[in-house]
Design goal:
200 residues, four-stranded antiparallel β-sheet
Length: 200
């Protein structure tokens, strides 16, 4: 019915001429409100998977990454996300999909992760040092977060690993564990810390 009303050429399912006839018709009728995506369009090269990384959720920070799954669904689904809560203790939890994963992919927290919307590092420091909040961790970058540890010591996390600490509790110095010395350049590139060294 719609094709007759719009006078769209239709030659039946599987006809080799349907695509080319549709293109010709669209060239003659650009005002009909029909959009046809072409496979040779440069816009197809702009498709990218949603970026993941650190996710601030409540009083905690989680690291999200994709995990390979055999599934017929395309795009981003809960079952494709590996979620790990970052903590300075050994009781770090992880899960995929609904199993141990508190992050709803339709939540505001997930939205802020995808669009790379994080609080400023100074805001994170202020919250973690304050007695008014029970915050245990705060991400300030897609790949970096600060975690509160015993005796008010602040730790630095990169992706899903705790790589070092802020010995003075501020931005004057970041001390990186020798085990993670390969991350020093990434930490320096942040431009937040006056000094970055390796713990010996």
């Amino acid at each position: 019915m719609a094709s007759k009303t719009l006078d769209i050429p239709f030659h039946g399912h599987g006809c080799n001429d349907t695509g080319s006839n549709m293109d010709k018709w669209l060239d003659k009728h650009p005002d009909k409100g029909i959009i046809r995506k072409r496979m040779d369009s440069a816009l197809f090269n702009k498709y990218r998977p949603f970026p993941l990384g650190m996710c601030n959720f409540g009083d905690f920070v989680f690291h999200l990454e994709r995990s390979p799954t055999r599934h017929t669904q395309q795009g981003l689904t809960s079952s494709m996300i590996q979620c790990r809560q970052l903590s300075v203790t050994d009781n770090q939890s992880s899960g995929r999909g609904g199993r141990g994963n508190p992050i709803n992919i339709l939540s505001n927290e997930m939205y802020r992760t995808i669009i790379n919307d994080y609080p400023d590092i100074n805001e994170c420091l202020s919250v973690l040092h304050s007695d008014e909040y029970s915050t245990k961790g705060a991400a300030f970058h897609r790949n970096f977060a600060l975690l509160s540890g015993p005796m008010g010591i602040l730790f630095l996390a990169y992706k899903d690993e705790i790589i070092g600490m802020l010995p003075t509790g501020d931005l004057s110095k970041a001390s990186i564990s020798k085990k993670f010395k390969h991350t020093v350049e990434a930490v320096e590139e942040l431009g937040y810390f006056a000094q970055v060294d390796i713990i010996k």
